[in-house]
Amino acid sequence: MLTIVAANTEVPPVSQAAAAKVAREIAALEASIDQSIAHAAALAATIVDTRRDSGLPVHAGQLALIRLQRAQAQLVAASSDTFRVHDELSRLARTLMIWEDPTEPSGLLDDNQALDAVA
């Protein structure tokens, strides 16, 4: 375990095992969101293919497609926010000198001035 002292304030120790668990969980979250985005895209294609192949009117299922597109947009937004979480956790780990994240920062955190203003 590692204890860091900065500005006369002792930071509680964080074990390598705990840091590794956080790294595994964020990677799993990123992968599951990507999988959800892929499933949503496949569903959209299947709806359109089924409509076309079944000879249904071109507007059949359109409301479902609109709602699915909104869900896809929310998944992409969740993915972007998750990348920001990853970047922030990586920054924290480097600050505490407990974990060196081999992934490149997404760049999303640096481009979001609103987040910088809150932090």
Q: Helical proportion?
A: 55-70%
The tally of helices reads 4
Which structural category do the helix and sheet elements fall into? mainly alpha
Shape: elongated
- Reading the helices and strands in chain order gives EEHHHH
Radius of gyration: 21 Å
Average predicted confidence as pLDDT: 83
Q: How far apart are the termini? A: 27 Å
Low-confidence stretches: 1-8
Main sheet strand line-up: 1-2
Largest sheet: 2 strands, antiparallel
Total beta-strand segments: 2
Work out the strand percent.
5-15%
Q: Can you tell me about this structure?
A:
The protein is mainly α and 119 residues long. The protein is 70% helix and 9% strand. It is built from four helices and two strands; from the N terminus they run E-E-H-H-H-H. It has helices at 16-53, 62-96, 108-111, 113-118, and strands spanning 2-6, 9-14. Strands 1-2 form a two-stranded antiparallel ribbon. The longest helix has 38 residues, at 16-53.
Please render the helix and strand layout as text:
Layout (H helix, E strand, L loop, with lengths): L1 E5 L2 E6 L1 H38 L8 H35 L11 H4 L1 H6 L1
Antiparallel strand pairs: 1-2
Helix pairs in contact: 1-2
Quick take:
With 119 residues, this protein is mainly α.
Main attributes of the structure:
4 helices, elongated, disordered N terminus, 119 residues, 2 strands, single chain, 70% helix, mainly alpha
